[in-house]
Amino acid sequence: MKFRTLALATTIGTMALFSGCASQSVSYGDAQATETLTKDFGSTDLQQIAAKMVDDMLAFPPVIEMTQARRPVLFVDRIKNKTQEHIDTESITDTIQNKLINSGKFRFVDMTSVGAMADQLAYQQQSGMVDKRTAVKTGSQIAAEYMLNGNLSSIVKNSGGKSDVYYKFTFKLQNLKTGIVEWTGEKEIRKSAKRAAFGL
Fold this sequence. Notes:
The protein is α/β, with parallel strands linked by helices. The protein is built from 5 helices and 6 strands, in the order H-H-H-E-E-H-E-H-E-E-E. The chain has helices at residues 2-22, 43-59, 61-66, 89-102, 114-126; strands at 73-76, 80-81, 107-108, 146-159, 162-175, 181-194.
């Protein structure tokens, strides 16, 4: 009985010790602050790319001209990730799209929700559950006039405890009717890291 009591006490003590080591302090930070934990693609890189692309595009004279009297309809194609990292490129396009919409210069069609919209329209038209007087008629959606797409690539070099990564993001606005590329922009980012000496 004493042995069991001792074993139980030891187990509880060990669990308490490990739970104490695993505790952590959590605090909020500035989402816009520069993130430098690693050289990998991060939130600051995303913010810089989005700001650069939107600012350059809105300042381009032909784009200024095409948006003076109306708001052209765009869609964003998925960005091609040509790096060796797993990068959520959808976050980049979402941020760029958000900034462009809020500029008041463009309207967007969301190609990621086409399947869900088709299902809803089919339900309204074919299920027999929806009042035909309120059902949305198919064939009346506004078509996109322009497409935004881009590539994200990188070059990584490592030598003597030092590493360097170069990111290049390219983005373009293409006229769907003519195939003409109306605008293109790029943003370059270089990040370096040095491995700390052992014990420091």
